Amino acid sequence: MRKIQIIPLLFAFLFVACNNKNSKQETSESTTAIDWNAAADSCSRALASSFWDATAHYFWTDNHGNKTFQYWPQAHALDVLIDAYERSGNDFYKAYFGLWFDGVKKQNGNGWYNNFFDDMEWIALALLRVYKATGEAKYKEAALELWGYIQEGWNNYAGGGIAWERDSHLWSKNACSNGPACILAARLYRETGDETCRDWAFKVYEWEKSVLFNSSTGAVYDNINGQTGEKNTSWIFTYNQGTFIGSAVELYKITGEKTYLNDAVLAANYTTTVLVNSGILKDEGSGDGGLFKGIFVRYFTELIRQEGLDSAVKKRYTQFLQYNAETLWTKGANKKDVLFGTNWRNRPGSETGLTEQISGCMLIEAMNVLQSVE
Predict the structure, then answer these.
(1) Which of 73, 209, 224, 326 has a CA between 20 and 30 Å from the CA of residue 38?
(2) At what angle are helices 91-107 and 36-51 packed, to 10 degrees?
């Protein structure tokens, strides 16, 4: 990975504001009539029609013949369908939930366990959302089963934290295996009232904040080597920013303490001023990287929804997300097939990967959530 150059935050805010203003003028005529509900329906239905295996009941790696099963993107594809169902109430989306549950479990060796702790966390978070949407106990039971496995990832390398991988990397403590774990634990606490889940949420958050979060800039470092103590400060990705924001928001919901909201704002400010290209979230590639922006958008949207967020900050964040969505929909979407690529300014052809498609869908679905935010 290329090292990211961090520019001063004040200059970055001014730079992005100016570029956003100019870009708004460029796209204003084509964005005034965007029907975000219709746009979301079209892209979420395209995800289902172009990537879904109607026989084996899981999402393919791309829409041009690669049917390789990958565990962790399944969670985020399901998240999009949950978004669509919650937005529309349409049983078209709900019909996939049970099929996904059986198909993904079968493809994963007839069980939910996986060697990567972060992958299990993503699946558990999606399962918990399906439970909330449907009330069907099997989804909650599966999420709790996964939560039991996830707790086993905590060890004393680097003073704590949940490992990235069980077998060969117990010493590697990553933001991607701790941020989602905190979110999951906090949501399980709010769902079940189990205070051990609450304790886990605080424990994981405090470890990540003290070890991987730069409290001066808002950057979230990707990982620390628990054997050497070396932090990887060159890898700073939007999804790690997003799950740290999500963790802070969940603890703010539990406690009402502004400290957590301030942490989230600091991480959000860093992301929206540094991890961008002229106001648009940067291209982080295909494969795993294709999902990063979408994950950030999901938890950034949760931050915007918080009533305790300063109104000026809320407005600025909303405008940032709107500009990204307008740019994606007017410049970066293949409208014929309703497909998205890795760069939200560049329109893909007829082929794209599952992860970048999911990210685009997440952004368009998020625009509908923001319609209800004052």
Answers:
(1) 73
(2) 30
14-60: pLDDT as tens digits: 334 444 444 443 444 345 689 999 999 999 999 999 999 999 999 99
Instruction: Specify the pLDDT at position 2.
Output: 29
pLDDT for 3 equals 29
Burial 211-238 (b: 16+ CB within 10 A, else e): bbbbeebbbbbbbbebeeeebbbebbbb
Following DSSP, what letter does each residue of 256-320 receive, concatenated?
Answer: --HHHHHHHHHHHHHHHHHSEETTEEPP--SGGGGGHHHHHHHHHHHHHT-TTS-HHHHHHHHHH
Looking at domain 9-370, which CATH architecture does it have?
Alpha/alpha barrel (1.50)
Q: Exposed (0-12), middle (13-18) or buried (19+): which is 339, by Cβ within 10 Å? A: buried
79 neighbors 362 (Cβ within 8 angstroms):
yes
pTM: 0.92
256: left (phi over 0), alpha (psi -120 to 50) or beta: left
pLDDT of 140? 98
For β-strands 231-232 and 339-340, DSSP reports them as: unpaired
In 69-225, alpha helices (H): 71-88, 91-107, 117-134, 137-151, 175-192, 195-212
Q: Which two tokens stand for residue 354?
A: 């599952």
Hey, which residues does 340 pair with through a beta bridge? 333
Q: Which amino acid is at 117?
A: F
Ranges in the chain, pLDDT < 50: 1-30
Spatial contact of 365 and 349, defined as CB atoms under 8 Å apart: no
Q: What is the pLDDT of residues 267-317, one digit of tens each?
A: 999 999 999 999 999 999 999 999 999 999 999 999 999 999 999 999 999
Helix or strand or coil: residue 135? coil
Name the residue type at position 299.
Y
Instruction: Please name every residue paired with 169 in a beta bridge, in sequence order, or none if there are none.
Output: none
Compute the distance between CA of residue 84 and CA of residue 96 in angstroms, rounded to an integer.
12
